[in-house]
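Minutes, project check-in
Item: structure for the 86-residue chain
Input as provided by the requester:
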Amino acid sequence: MVTYSIKSIHQKAATARFLETGGGPPAGVRMLGRWHASGAGFVLAETNDLKALYEWTARWTDLLAFVVTPVLEDAEAADVMKRAGA
């Protein structure tokens, strides 16, 4: 899960770049969904290529601040919890 915030002084530039490029991911990253909020947003992405994910965010770091958090679905998390003895 990638969350981002738009630096307020860059709102117009970020909007223009998004409208021009669509803000899609590079090869190796599959965007499962993207949700926009006022000055922020959320992206659910799937990848086995962390360099590609880094490339995607690096293209925007002049305008946006990112937090990238690995997430699991319930069944996957349950398997991990069982193995961890939680």
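Outcome recorded: The beta strands are 2-6, 29-37, 40-47, 64-68.
No further action items on this chain.
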